[in-house]
# Entry
Amino acid sequence: MDARGYQQYKQQSISSMTPGELLLLLYDELVKRSTLASIALDKQDWPVFEGALDRCTDIINYLDETLDRQYPISQDLSRMYDYFTYELSRIKAGRNKKELDRLRPMLADLRDTFRAAEKNSGGQERQP
# Structure
């Protein structure tokens, strides 16, 4: 498969996902990148470590920006995202393995919560 074909396939796959599936995709990537950062920190691969944490921060910022502020839970999620952003910046600056290992399960728990909510809702909302 050539690169163009793969990109078209990827775009079509994303276009056909429900909002819940897209949200889970972002959370999966967040957990994956935080794990990558942990591995890179163990290997002292600073460019990979910093890049992974930068990507985590980008994902969290995107999640925060796309919150529907008309719902009360959005304010709570926004505060949680602010906390994650703050902690990620501290982890990056201090190259702190202990704090990263403390934060990663929180990210995974949040992802799992959204996964359970998506499963309970049946993922019925399809985007046009």
Remarks:
- The chain is about 85% helix and 0% strand.
- Helices lie at 3-15, 19-43, 46-65, 72-94, 97-121.
